[in-house]
Amino acid sequence: MKRSLAIVIGLMLCFSGSVALADCGKVTIGEMNWGSAQVIANVEKFVLEVGYGCQVELIQTSTVPAMTSMVEKGEPDIASEIWVNSVKEVFNKGVEDGRVVSAGNVLSDGGVESWWIPKYFSDANPNIKTIQDVIANAKMFQDPEDPSKGRFYSCPSGWACKIINNNLFRAYGMEASFNNFDPGSAEGLAASIAKAYERKEPWFGYYWAPTAVLGKYPMVEVKLGEFNAEGHPCNTKENCDNPHAGRYPPSAVLAATTKKFMDSHKAEFEFLQKISIPNDVMNAVLAWGEENQAEGNEMAGYFIQTYGDLWVSWLPDDVATKVKAALQ
Question: What's the per-residue H, E or C state across 267-322?
């Protein structure tokens, strides 16, 4: 039933432009090519159309092209999910030049990269909380190919996080007690978590949020050392001679608009400023999408259907009333 209703709402999101009013005008949203961004872009589209009378066009893009185009060409009007660490130089220049503005943190927890253990394992072993606890209990994470050591599931070769994990591995002196395992691919890394969950076995490794995987398989973050802005840059280098034993930097995930849009659409900009989704909510939406092979608009429909108290809090009463009426 939930899938059927979400699909109906998702279809409404696709065609809601036909009922848009004329007072807002045409608005373009850059729809990034990953799940959470697709959810946010489609939710924005629906609310802007039925709540504010905009005629919204979704433009398929990704982070760097979207931000570069906003700075250089003034379009699209909105980028619904920008991981600022990935485009910091371009974004900061756009802000300094008065071409783009931040509309706030669309993911209230930010993007999270970290090392994790399964929740069922954490519940059964509440004494294992920090990286030092994990190292002291390496035998619990036994490597099936080398039982003398534990196994740490890292990123696949070629990913930036592989280099960071290698340096953290050295910074914590883990070589004596753990093997630094390359899962080969994103699918291999996800499959290792699924297998551990199926068998309720120990697992220790890297992952990021928000993702469908962490929505489907709850994990608990292992406490690493504090992030250090001076020490971390070395961790990103292949040949770091002095790796820093600190966690990944927090990644701000913002909605951004052109300055022109902010100035000409004050009410709509206020709505964008209030969008704030916790990672556990987005993880759950993405997990539902994966289980149901749902498109971005259908996942947005599921979000609207399931988390009404959240999105209503972003809207003035009169706009919320219009959106609710459109769903009936």
Answer: HHHHHHHHCCECHHHHHHHHHHHHHCCCCHHHHHHHHHHHCHHHHHCCCCHHHHHH
